[in-house]
Structures are given as C-alpha cells and as structure tokens.
Amino acid sequence: ALVESTSPILLQQMGVRYELRLTKKRSLRRSLVGSSRTDEQGNFWALREINLRVEPGESVAVIGPNGAGKSTLLKTLAGIITPDEGLAEVRGTIATLLQLSAGFEDELDAVENILLVGELLGIPAPRMRKKIPAILDFADIGNFADAELRTYSSGMRARLGFSVATSVDPDVLLLDEVLSTSDESFKKKSSARIKEMARQAQAIVYVTHDLESAQELCTRAIELRDGRIVADGPSEQVISAYARRMRNAK
Which helix (H) or strand (E) holds 48? Predict the structure, then answer.
C-alpha cells in the first residue's frame, strides 16, 4: 500500500519505461530488446521498483555505471519525467541545475537570466533582485555579469547555475555532476555551501560519477544498477564497496 508521508522525497515501487517500438535508432532498439530490463510488451524499464525516502537534512549520492538510470531518476524527481507506475512524491520547492541550465537564455546576460530563473521558480522579481549581488559574487564570473550567456565557458555557466540554484533556499536540491566543470577553489566553495544547506534541513540528491566528491558531500549513497537500487546506506560504505567492485571488474 502507498503511504502518506511528510518526507521531502518519497518514491514507492516507482518505475519509468520507454516504448522501444517508438525508438528511432534500430541499433539501440536491438541492444535493448532481450535485456533483463525489457518486458513481454517490448517496454524498456529505465527504472523499476524504486523505493526511496529522503528525510530533511539528508544528502544522498546516486552512483552507478552509465545507463543505470541515474539521470532518469533525477529527471523524475525534478518533475520532468512522470513515472509509469508507483508513487513519486517531492514536497516543497525544488531547485535543480537540470532546469536551471535549461532555463538559461543565451541572448541574455547574467542578471537577466537570474531574474528569468526566479520567475521559473515562482520567486517575485523584487526578492530575486536582492539576491543578485550575492549570486554574482559566489559565481565569480567577474566582468562577464553584463555579457550575453553565449560568451560563457561551460564552467562559468555551471558556476552561475549552481549559485542561482543554491540561493533560492529550496526544500529539495537536485544536483547532477555539478562540480565536474569547476576549478578546485569553486569545488571547495560549493562543497561548503551544500553541507550548509544539509545542516539547514534541506534534502539534497547528488547524481555523480565522481566518487570522491560524493563521499565528501553526502551522508548516504544509493547505487543503481540496471534500473534498480542495489545498495543503500552510509555513503562511505556504499561508495567504497562500489569502487572496489569497479576496480576488480577492470
């Protein structure tokens, strides 16, 4: 039975499937047909029987090989994908870099983009304007604040996106490889901010291949394999077991 919950994130028996007959690429379709994730109707299950509850103040790393379902899980939590079975409940305000970089407009400058994202997140312009100096300061984009976004490097875009996402005091913060394009000093700054948000009882889900940052930032980790959760526990334990297995598989 599905239960009522006050947790910021609750997933119960949640599944997401893709209909393979709609898949354009034949080679992809062939490789997926007959896999353990394909049912009799020819549906490919990107995620299956996902049970996950994240409490306030928990920071959860999502690890696993390519194709395990990590990005699909993040998109489901962000409300971009609707599950095909089970329950996916995310309570409160959500900030995600997925939406933010998607929400950015190349022709606008940093300030205009910050106000645009504020609008997307339902934050009144006057309140968002007050946040602008702190956002720009944290993003550390120097003289580029007045330049159009298309002139930014991927690192600058990521820094601006991160600064906006973490400035709006979300109840749930969803991060995807956020620190991979950043330099060391920004990584340190971002880590400190993520830990501070967890202390303020915000729920954080961090999808990454960077096991070191996952272990440093998160108190808990789940490992996805073939669309299912195969491990869930303290981050150090789950991540070191996964790293050991990856090493042995080489």
Answer: strand 43-54
- DSSP H helices, 44-96, are 70-77
**What does residue 180 show for φ and ψ, rounded to 5 degrees?**
-70, -25
Task: Return d(Cα 131, Cα 229) in angstroms, integer.
Answer: 38
The whole-model pTM stands at: 0.82
What residues pair up with 233 in beta bridges, in sequence order?
221
Q: Distances in Å between the alpha carbon of 151 and those of 143, 144, 174, 224?
A: 12, 8, 26, 36
Q: How far apart are CA 160 and CA 137, in angstroms?
A: 10
Q: Which stretch of 16-20, 95-99, 220-224 has the lowest confidence by average pLDDT?
A: 95-99
Q: Which pLDDT belongs to residue 44? A: 86
Q: What is the chain written as a DSSP string?
A: ------SSEEEEEEEEEEEGGG-S-HHHHHHHTTSTTB-TTSEEEEEEEEEEEE-TT-EEEEE--TTSSHHHHHHHHTTSS--SEEEEEE-S-EEEHHHHHHH--TTSBHHHHHHHHHHHTT--HHHHHHHHHHHHHHHT-GGGGGSBGGGS-HHHHHHHHHHHHHHS--SEEEEESTTTTS-HHHHHHHHHHHHHHHHTT-EEEEE-S-HHHHHHH-SEEEEEETTEEEEEEEHHHHHHHHHHHHHHH-
Please report which confidence band the pLDDT of residue 192 belongs to, taking 50, 70 and 90 as the band edges.
confident
Q: Residue holding tokens 């960077």?
A: 210
Rounded Cα distance, 158 and 150, in Å: 13
Taking alpha carbons only, the member of 106, 81, 63 closest to residue 231 is 63
Tokens for 53, please give them: 């509850």
